[in-house]
Specification:
The chain is α+β, with helices and mostly antiparallel strands. It is built from 13 helices and 13 strands. The relative contact order is 0.17. The chain has a single domain, classed as Ribosomal Protein S8, Chain: A, domain 1. Bound molecules: NADPH dihydro-nicotinamide-adenine-dinucleotide phosphate (NDP) and pyrrole-2-carboxylate.
């Protein structure tokens, strides 16, 4: 069992903001990043909560990100919003693009935002859940760095390529899932390494193409997709929809762009929103009931819906007023304060 430190909820935001501004992010970037880290830590997402502050700091130290830049949002006609992050972090661009995306989704029934030229480190579910608060279904995806071998391959070509989806539910939390298309997220492998734990089988191969349980060998070799060729194909789709479709980099190109430096990958992001009312032939209530019947049939069997663990963690942490992180991470973050 790892030793942990308790951090009060208000202090999570203050800690993140202080670390980020001290490292050179302006207050707008710092606040959007801190809010994302807080949201993830509140739900006990250890791989993309406060732990990812380390990646944000490595990114600015690597010298390629502009932590002071203002993104430019433009109406690309009909249902497309373009958000040029201009070499900053994705989150500020997303924050500024969402109001126009909501407007367009209400107008056309379906709309998309394409973010270009962004560094990206974060979990995706807060962005789709935000849209479900508006009554929309939403999905988003991003490439990353080419750490992941395609099914049957021996070297990294694909990113860890997460996909998130959210569906609004009347009077309750949405149905949301968000996962990497690699068997493990990179962040999860990093946490295994920090904890000195072996990886389970089926997560990675070493640089000779042999299965490995060693996090160091995995990071030197290649990670594997989940679900064999199925996860691999989904991952390729994400490369295409959040890369060439929107005139941005694939995970291979992001890795080249990094020139061996550590930090967040650099690429684009696509997010699609669907206005349920405009697809349902005026029968929104009937179709809501259909969706609810589906969810009930799943949970009545004892199966759980994705995000139930997160929602329970959120309720518990809000109730007790603090989150827990490992002592090792706490010490690393303290060392980044002014
Ligand atoms: P996990 O494997 O931890 O979880 C994936 C999803 O599956 C969650 O929605 C989770 O819900 C759900 N789930 C887990 N177990 C069950 C179960 N038994 N039954 C039903 N649902 C279940 O995710 P990953 O480690 O793959 O990804 C973690 C985060 O990392 C994601 O938020 C992702 O966006 C982020 N990431 C970001 C990247 C980037 O480039 N920016 C790259 C890769 C990942 P619950 O949370 O409730 O358990
Ligand atoms: O955990 O795979 C990951 C990841 C990539 C970029 C940010 N997180």
């Amino acid at each position: 069992m790892q030793k942990t430190v308790e951090i009060e909820l208000d202090d999570v935001l203050t800690l993140a903001n202080n670390v980020l501004t001290h490292a050179g992010y302006d207050s707008a970037h710092a606040s959007s990043i801190a809010q994302m880290l807080y949201t993830c830590q509140l739900d006990d997402c250890q791989s993309h909560g406060l732990f990812r502050l380390l990646m944000c700091i490595e990114t600015i130290k690597a010298g390629k990100i502009d932590g002071q830049i203002t993104p430019v949002i433009s109406d690309a006609g009909k249902a497309i919003v373009k958000a040029d992050a201009r070499g900053g972090m994705s989150l500020l661009a997303m924050e500024k693009a969402v109001p126009l995306l909501i407007e367009k989704t209400r107008e056309f029934g379906i709309a998309a935002v394409a973010i270009n030229h962004c560094f990206h480190f974060s979990a995706l579910w807060p962005e789709v859940e935000r849209l479900s608060q508006e009554g929309f279904a939403a999905m988003t995806m991003v490439p990353s760095h080419s750490w992941v071998a395609p099914a049957g391959g021996t070297r990294g070509t694909l990113g860890t390529n997460p996909l998130a989806f959210s569906w609004p539910r009347q009077g309750g939390a949405p149905f949301t899932f968000d996962f990497a298309t690699s068997a493990f997220a990179r962040g999860e492998i990093e946490l295994y390494k920090r904890a000195g734990k072996p990886l389970p089988d089926g997560v990675a191969i070493d640089k000779y193409g042999k299965p490995t349980n060693d996090p160091d060998a995995a990071m030197e070799g290649a990670m594997l997709t989940f679900g064999s060729y199925k996860g691999s194909a989904l991952s390729i789709m994400i490369e295409l929809l959040a890369g060439p479709l929107i005139d941005d980099l694939t995970s291979l190109e992001s890795m080249e762009f990094a020139e061996g430096k550590s930090g967040a990958p650099y690429h684009g992001q696509i997010l699609l929103a669907f206005d349920l009312g405009q697809f349902s032939n005026g029968e929104l209530a009937r179709n809501d009931a259909r969706a609810e019947r589906l969810f009930a049939d799943i949970t009545e069997q004892g199966a759980r819906l994705p995000s139930q663990r997160r929602f329970a963690a959120r309720a518990r942490n809000l109730e007790r007023g603090y989150v827990e992180i490992s002592v090792g991470l706490y010490e690393d973050l303290q060392a980044l304060l002014p």
